[in-house]
């Protein structure tokens, strides 16, 4: 099937082109881009007045469902990858996604947390995000490893890389007291395998002076010592009020030659399992936060005191929750979020979370989604909110820079581990036909903490592998064209 997108403002961060042109899609590839293209056999779509660019590549999405990916499709995403946490075993993760079908392309890293849990706690991984959330509060896997244990879980990670994992996802923030030598060993493994790491860093020294090493300094040092490509996940949420110092640390490391990359999202609250190490009442106090900063996702309960928080952590450590770390109504806090996004070459990544319903479901194949779904609004609105803030309202980014941050740069992080990534994030001939067409005057988020599953507005068309998932602003519930993005097996 050939499709001709006629007369839009074409923005290609791969070539630097920004101007009125046509884009011709042939099957799953871009055939040509330029003015006045002639393709009488193609289905022509008039996109005059709209912005046309490569679909957004989300490096950090914990959405493993059709329902959640449809929310991300309405936000302009064409590829949704779970790289911070990853899944294990990787073969099972890919097989189950393929069997169920996906609206978007998908992929996974090798899970550091699951490998450690298997060796240190005897917990067999099942490639399931909900099981992974439950494990986060289990203290057995959070300790340091013996030499034999370290060798065992490194071997598991190496096996996952050989099977095509997209690098190593490291949830260091969930085991913050572990021996720094173990993190360095992971970096050495990544460097030898030629794959990136994606790290939720441990606590900052300003927050916990007793931390074995400052979390952001650790990733910079490890990258410098090993030469590994190391990605710092959601720098906004792990840095909080210390974002300026953290960004300066990372900037220095990059100037000295370290291969450190950064991501951010435009929200002042995060989402995780209530049993996470950093939601311990003592650690909240170190951050200047209170139990009332924690909201249980499925019930909406705002935790009233430390006793209640301890009880929740004990009874259901895997329960999803929100953690408010910045006040988006405060101009000073809002400026911190903007500085994280504006940091040179920082990419946009959502940290999208599963959608939960009160009956325990995390999947719905109907559209629109059934009422009552709970998640973080970043699942539905990260990219549209970022475009609203950084392009429409402040003009900090041009449209070319926006597509560079949302599509081109995240794709380039994966070039060495997954050759298929080289066809993403640009509109050159032969590129994947993953295209977003948006209304530059209307693109915005509509999801809120009270109504987190409201789709973004302004995405007029979305093509995944050349298949229209969104047409004239409406999602096609029959479209499941997503394909795996996978590393080369070794």
TrEMBL record:
<dbReference type="InterPro" id="IPR032466">
    <property type="entry name" value="Metal_Hydrolase"/>
</dbReference>
<dbReference type="GO" id="GO:0016811">
    <property type="term" value="F:hydrolase activity, acting on carbon-nitrogen (but not peptide) bonds, in linear amides"/>
</dbReference>
<dbReference type="Pfam" id="PF07969">
    <property type="entry name" value="Amidohydro_3"/>
</dbReference>
<dbReference type="InterPro" id="IPR023100">
    <property type="entry name" value="D-aminoacylase_insert_dom_sf"/>
</dbReference>
<dbReference type="InterPro" id="IPR011059">
    <property type="entry name" value="Metal-dep_hydrolase_composite"/>
</dbReference>
<dbReference type="InterPro" id="IPR050378">
    <property type="entry name" value="Metallo-dep_Hydrolases_sf"/>
</dbReference>
<dbReference type="GO" id="GO:0005829">
    <property type="term" value="C:cytosol"/>
</dbReference>
<protein>
    <submittedName>
        <fullName>Dihydroorotase</fullName>
    </submittedName>
</protein>
<dbReference type="InterPro" id="IPR013108">
    <property type="entry name" value="Amidohydro_3"/>
</dbReference>
<feature type="domain" description="Amidohydrolase 3">
    <location>
        <begin position="44"/>
        <end position="470"/>
    </location>
</feature>
<dbReference type="GO" id="GO:0016812">
    <property type="term" value="F:hydrolase activity, acting on carbon-nitrogen (but not peptide) bonds, in cyclic amides"/>
</dbReference>
